[in-house]
């Protein structure tokens, strides 16, 4: 039996998830497990898929990073499947663990991916240390792509709309911390962090957002109070 697994990091990546599922269906998968969760969190559907497969089945994913986040994680999953006599197939590399060559290539690819990540982190650490020495470091640096994504979400953010993503949801979608989102909002649109006053709520709820009508009503109320005081003093 051909069993597929698809994953995206967030619930906003529906197109990417649909593409994976379509590829798995074309490959002939009879059963497909899918989920939208970051690889750093518990992946319940992946575990269900691994529990589901039986001896002789083929477990298929489109890309290696949809399955594992590190080489050790990859080897752990591969070993589990091997113990169940299940073949692993990764479409983007056209390889499977049914052959010795496939097993070797899988480990090499995983090792290269982890090496590249370590090199990236090393360059990042070097850049941060240099910025600290020059007094220019202002916190964790975001990649250009992640920064543009965050700025786009902040521009769309509307604290007064139920249809808008919340601060926490923006942080999750952009894969950054909540404090980072607040910091960026203060830079780009500080007015979006201003809390509504009681006056703002009254103007919006009772006067339909018309502050001029609110001021007229306040003046009318003031005149009534003054008139009442005059009547009492007669």
**CATH homologous superfamily of the largest domain - what is it?**
Resolvase, N-terminal catalytic domain
CATH architecture label of the largest domain: 3-Layer(aba) Sandwich
Number of strands: 5
Structural class: alpha/beta
Biggest sheet features: 5 strands, mixed
Q: Gyration radius, to the nearest Å? A: 28 Å
- Note the overall shape: elongated
The level 1 CATH classification of the largest domain is Alpha Beta
**Overall pLDDT:** 80
Task: Give the strand order, joined by hyphens, for the main sheet.
Answer: 2-1-3-4-5
What fraction of residues sit in β-strands? 5-15%
Q: Which series of helices and strands comes N to C?
A: EHEHEHEEHHHHHH
Distance between the termini: 97 Å
**Helix percentage range:** 55-70%
CATH topology heading of the largest domain: Rossmann fold
């Amino acid at each position: 039996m051909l069993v597929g697994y698809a994953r995206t990091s967030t619930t906003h990546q529906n197109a990417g998830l649909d593409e994976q599922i379509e590829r798995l269906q074309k490959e002939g998968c009879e059963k497909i497990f899918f989920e939208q969760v970051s690889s750093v969190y518990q992946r319940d559907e992946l575990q269900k898929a691994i529990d589901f497969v039986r001896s002789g089945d083929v477990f298929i994913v489109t890309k290696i990073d949809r399955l594992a986040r590190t080489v050790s994680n990859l080897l752990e999953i591969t070993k589990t499947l091997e113990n169940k006599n299940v073949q692993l197939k990764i479409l983007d590399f056209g390889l499977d663990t049914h052959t010795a060559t496939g097993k070797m290539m899988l480990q090499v690819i995983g090792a290269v991916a982890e090496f590249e990540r370590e090199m990236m982190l090393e360059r990042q650490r070097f850049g941060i240390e240099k910025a600290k020495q020059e007094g220019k470091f202002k916190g964790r640096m975001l990649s250009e792509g992640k920064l543009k994504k965050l700025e786009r979400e902040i521009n769309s953010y509307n604290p007064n709309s139920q249809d808008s993503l919340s601060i926490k949801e923006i942080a999750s979608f952009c894969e950054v911390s909540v404090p980072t989102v607040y910091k960026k909002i203060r830079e780009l649109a500080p007015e979006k962090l201003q809390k509504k006053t009681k006056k703002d709520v009254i103007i919006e709820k009772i006067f339909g957002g018309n502050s001029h009508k609110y001021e007229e009503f306040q003046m009318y109320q003031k005149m009534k109070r003054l008139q009442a005081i005059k009547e009492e003093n007669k």
